[in-house]
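User: Last request for today: this protein with manganese (II) ion, please.
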Amino acid sequence: MKMTFRWYGAGSDSVTLQQIRQIPGMSGIMGFLDYKAAGELWTEEEIAAYVGQVHQAGLECEVIESVNVHEDIKLGLPSRDRYIEAYIQTIRNLAKYGVKVIIYNFMPVLDWLRTDLARPNPEDGSLSMYYDDRELGSLTPEELVRRTAENSNGFSLPGWEPERLADLERVMGLYRQMDEGKLLANFRYFLDAVIPVCEEEGVRMACHPDDPGWPIFGLPRVAYNQQGFDRIMALHDSPANTVCLCTGSLGSNVENDIPAMIRHFGSMDRIGAMHVRNLKHMGSDRCFRESAHLSSDGDLDMYEIMKAIAEVCPDTYVRPDHGRMIWGETGRPGYGLYDRALGACYLNGLWEAIQKGQHRAKEDE
Ligand SMILES: [Mn+2]
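Assistant: Here's the final one, the structure of the complex with manganese (II) ion:
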């Protein structure tokens, strides 16, 4: 297991590479060029500068997140070929600088979403991201996007870039005529083009789940449960077509058994990377708060999750995910230093106990 940390780049992240380096057990970062619009080519110069900084800090940069898929690809418009070409060149450029995994998602229009980015926990005063389906029902997509942008402390959130959402209404309209089958056909067209390039370059694509884990605003969604990911893996069967198994996104849907999903996709060698975090449902299956990583603070059993990783994909990349805001920290919602650092240390502690337990069990045999 390689413990990593998401980093948005100098000037764009409230956390520095040196701070990340000082977290015990940190091997590298999951990188992101946050100024790139979906569909835009990531140039060699830009990648070299970013990766160089990470290496300079004594960290690895083998995983890149959010090389966003342009809407025209998801919609299957004739202009998709141009964007796929740029995507392929981006893959080649990233491979040149040692990147091994590219995390992306195939969510129509809206990326992950919450109805509150800083909900106070009455028990301890920490702030968490929060989702309530009843609140979502009272908002239009436009209102939700505006509210999210206003409450992100001046930071852009992945998938919420204002330029990308400028023509929200028009794009939502295009999707209303689309069903899951059509979306999957467009997904297959994309994978058929990029996966052979990944095989050539030694890179794996890792699809991030939809978040929350069910369809919203009447948009088709295909990546929120085991059955959906089975279909995605079958669209283009290759070791380079993998899942970014995000326990929090999948865990939002109470029907998902996360350790079982890790065992299922891990034993097929189809887990490219993991996001490991916890969440707590609040009196309804469709209302949750992002909790601390600790098992006892949320609904997910983090010991069982780490044990499943140790069993089926012990070499995968893991990072703590969305943290709470604690100890007065301000920053990009979900991406402060303190709570994610605590999360990483906790996961590393579970990992050591599992490893040593396995080792001793073998000695006793
Ligand atoms: Mn995630």
